[in-house]
Design brief:
Structural class: alpha/beta
Distance between the termini: 62 Å
CATH architecture of the largest domain: 3-Layer(aba) Sandwich
Number of helices: 15
Number of strands: 18
Strand order of the largest sheet: 9-15-14-13-12-10-11
CATH topology of the largest domain: Aspartate Aminotransferase, domain 2
CATH superfamily of the largest domain: Type I PLP-dependent aspartate aminotransferase-like (Major domain)
Strand content: 15-25%
Radius of gyration: 25 Å
C-alpha cells in the first residue's frame, strides 16, 4: 500500500461500498481528521440494525480539498447486487432528531472537525499574522456544539433546507415568546435589511430615514430601489434623534440600529418605546438588534415584546455576533404575520443553508455560549479601554463588541498606518472623521492593537 499511487488511493475512496441489502436502515458516516499535514481520513460504515454487517474501513491520504469525497460517500450507498446509487432521504423529524442529539449521539460519533484541532476558538488572524479588528466579528467562533452539529449534518447537503428551517423557527418562537408565523429567517440579518428596503422604500413606498452615522448596508439597498435616503445626525449622547427622524418620515421606513453601529451607543428604552407608539401605521420601523446580547445597560431593552401591539414594527437579529457565525450567514426578524408575508414575497427560496440551520439550532441549545462570550468581551474591552484612558483617548460608552474613540486627528492615515503594522481596524465613517471603530478581539489581540497604536501616534 505504501507504493500505491495517489490516483489509485483516490479510486479506492470512490469505489463502491458493499452493504448487505438485508440492512433496513442507512449506514452512518463518521469522519476524523487528526492531522492537517497528512490528513488521514477513516470512513466507518455502520449498520444500525445488522450486527453481521461488519464496518468497512479503509484509509486515504489526501489533501484537504478531497474531503468532498466524504460528503459524496455520505450521501450514497451502493448496493452489492445492482450497483444502483440510492440517495438517502431524511424527514423533518429526522432533522430535528439529528440536531437535538446529545449524549446518545456522542456514543456513536466522535468529536470531529475538518479543521485543525487547534483552530476552534482561535484568534481572528489571517495569513501573515494579521490581527483583524475591523468587522465586529466574534474572535471565539461558534459554539463547539454548533461545530459538531455542522459535522453531523453533512448528510443533509443534498437536500434543500425549506422543510428543515421550521426546527430553528420553532426554537426562536419559543425563546422570544411569539408565534411561529411571526418569524422570517434570512441569509444573515443583512438579507432582512435588504428585504425591508425592497418592501417598504422606493418611489411608490417612501424614503428611508436613518441615523448618521449608522450601519450603511440598508442605505445602499434603499438607494438601489430608487428611494430617497434621509440622514439625521445622532444626538450629543450618540443616541438616535427619534423626534427628528419621525418628523422626516412620510410613510417609507425608519431604520434604528440599537445598539448602533459604528458608535456602539444605545438609544434609551423609554425614548424608543415612546417613538414606536407615536409612529403612524403607514410608516414602518425596523429596529436592528444585531448587538443585543452585548448590551448590559439598564437603559437598554429589546423591543421584540412590542411587536404584538404594533403591526408596523420589525425587529432583526443575527447569529453573526455573539454566536460567532458570521461566515455561515443566518439571521431572522420578528414582526406580525402580515409584515412577514410581505417580506417573504421578495425573498429568494431557501436562502439559509442546512449547515447554518444546524449550527444555529445547536447554538441556542448551548446554555453556556452566550454568557461566556459576554464575559470574555467585557474583559477584553475593559483592558483596551483602560489602556486608551491612560493615553488620553476618549471613547463613546460601548454597549457592543466594539468601541469607537476619538483619535484627535483625521483617522484615515491612522487606519492605513495600522494596516501596515498588520492590525486591521474599522473603516472611516465620514460623520465622525476623527473617530476609529475597533472590534473587541481577544486580550492578546487588543495588546497587539495597543502596541501598534502607540507606534503610529508617536
Amino acid at each position: 500500500m505504501a507504493n500505491t499511487s495517489m490516483k489509485n488511493q483516490r479510486a479506492m475512496a470512490l469505489a463502491a461500498v458493499e452493504y448487505p441489502r438485508t440492512t433496513a436502515r442507512k449506514p452512518s458516516l463518521l469522519v476524523t481528521a487528526p492531522s492537517e499535514a497528512n490528513c488521514p481520513v477513516r470512513f466507518h460504515f455502520e449498520s444500525v440494525l445488522s450486527s453481521a454487517a461488519k464496518p468497512k474501513v479503509f484509509n486515504q491520504h489526501a489533501r484537504r480539498a478531497r474531503y468532498s469525497i466524504a460528503i459524496r460517500l455520505a450521501l450514497t450507498v451502493k448496493s452489492r447486487k445492482d450497483h444502483f446509487m440510492n440517495t438517502i432521504p431524511i424527514s423533518r423529524r429526522d432533522f430535528a432528531r439529528l440536531l437535538g442529539a446529545g449524549a446518545a449521539a456522542a456514543l456513536v460519533r466522535p468529536q470531529v472537525s475538518f479543521a485543525k484541532p487547534t483552530q476552534v476558538g482561535t484568534t481572528l488572524t489571517t495569513g501573515g499574522g494579521i490581527v483583524r479588528l475591523s468587522a465586529n466579528e466574534n474572535p471565539y467562533g461558534p459554539s463547539p456544539k454548533a461545530l459538531q452539529a455542522m459535522t453531523d449534518s453533512f448528510g443533509l447537503a443534498c437536500r434543500y433546507p425549506d422543510e428543515h428551517d421550521n426546527v430553528l423557527i420553532e426554537k426562536l418562537a419559543k425563546l422570544n415568546g411569539i408565534n411561529h408565523d411571526q418569524i422570517l429567517l434570512g441569509d444573515g440579518s443583512g438579507e432582512i435589511l435588504k428585504l425591508c428596503a425592497e418592501t417598504f422604500t422606493g418611489p411608490q413606498n417612501g424614503a428611508l430615514v436613518v441615523a448618521d452615522p449608522t450601519f450603511e448596508a440598508i442605505l445602499h439597498n434603499a438607494s438601489a430601489q430608487g428611494a430617497e435616503v434621509v440622514k439625521v445626525p445622532l444626538t450629543p449622547t450618540y443616541a438616535h434623534d427619534l423626534t427628528k427622524m419621525l418628523a422626516s418620515a412620510k410613510a417609507g421606513l425608519i431604520y434604528v440600529c440599537n445598539p448602533n453601529n459604528p458608535t456602539a451607543s444605545i438609544t434609551p428604552k423609554n425614548d424608543l418605546q415612546d417613538f414606536i407608539a407615536k409612529t403612524p401605521p403607514q410608516t414602518t420601523i425596523l429596529v436592528d438588534e444585531a448587538y443585543f446580547h452585548y448590551a448590559d445597560s439598564p437603559d437598554y431593552e429589546s423591543v421584540i415584546p412590542l411587536v404584538k401591539d404594533h403591526p408596523n414594527l420589525i425587529v432583526s437579529r443575527t447569529f453573526s455576533k455573539i454566536y460567532g457565525m458570521a461566515g455561515l450567514r443566518c439571521g431572522y426578524c420578528v414582526a406580525q404575520k402580515d409584515a412577514i408575508d410581505r417580506l417573504r414575497r421578495n425573498q429568494m427560496w431557501d436562502s439559509v443553508n442546512c449547515m447554518a440551520l444546524a449550527a444555529a439550532v445547536a447554538s441556542l441549545d448551548d446554555v453556556d455560549h452566550v454568557p461566556n462570550g459576554q464575559r470574555m468581551n467585557r474583559e477584553a474591552k475593559a483592558f483596551v479601554t483602560s489602556e486608551l484612558d491612560k493615553m488620553g483617548y476618549k471613547q463613546i460608552p460601548s454597549q457592543a463588541n466594539f468601541i469607537m474613540f476619538d483619535c484627535k486627528r483625521p483617522v484615515t492615515p491612522l487606519i492605513q498606518a495600522m494596516k501596515q503594522r498588520k492590525v486591521h481596524v474599522g473603516r472611516l465613517f465620514p460623520a465622525l472623521p476623527t473617530y476609529m471603530r475597533l472590534t473587541i478581539g481577544k486580550k492578546s489581540e487588543m495588546q497587539s492593537f495597543i502596541d501598534a497604536f502607540k507606534q503610529v501616534i508617536a
